[in-house]
Amino acid sequence: MLFDRRTSSGDVIVQRDNGRLMVQTKATGTTPPINTFETPISVSDGAWHHVAYVFNQASNALISLYVDGALQNEGRNAKSWFWPTNTGIEIGRSHDPAWRRFNGSLDDFRFYQKALAPSEIAALYDGDGGVAPGEVGLDLTSSMTGQTSSALDRKSTRLNSSHLVISYAVF
């Protein structure tokens, strides 16, 4: 489990046993998930990788997954979805016992308040030298400082944007 913010609605990003990243999105009252796809490449190669997850929660909108600045795959929502306001963000773990904890390292998690363009994601991968304070929608620095685990459960976090980029490095 890399990222989880889902109960009856929401999404998860998982690194599968084959090293590919999988996105699974649910909407309240739907079975199966409304959007599921995975990358064609593995990130389990002993190297750091930059991952960017760009989503739009509207019906028929795209969710995109970039690895090392390049689009790897995207899927279209079968219907609109949302993050429940009482559900926190879990990084590296999940409250759902169906998912395993992440066994690796995560660094430089960023949540943007807008959907970044492909050129902006490529610039992040190339090394952007930092982010202007007004562009970051959530700062987890104080929550993650001194952590000896990749796992973070931030129940008090409220991030409610329908267009967002999550950017991080995975090893």
Explain what you see.
The protein has 171 residues and is mainly beta. 8% of the residues lie in helices and 41% in strands. The protein is built from two helices and twelve strands. It has helices at 118-126, 141-144, and strands spanning 3-6, 10-15, 20-26, 35-42, 49-56, 62-67, 70-76, 89-91, 106-112, 136-138, 152-154, 163-170. Strands 4-3-2-1-8-11 form a six-stranded antiparallel β-sheet, with no helix packed on it. β1 and β2 (10-15) form a beta hairpin. The longest helix has 9 residues, at 118-126. The radius of gyration is 15 Å and the shape is globular.
Explain briefly what this protein structure is.
The protein has helices at about 120-125, 140-145; strands at about 5, 10-15, 20-25, 35-40, 50-55, 60-65, 70-75, 90, 105-110, 135-140, 150-155, 165-170. The chain is mainly beta.
Write out key terms for the chains shown.
single chain, mainly beta, six-stranded antiparallel β-sheet, 8% helix, globular
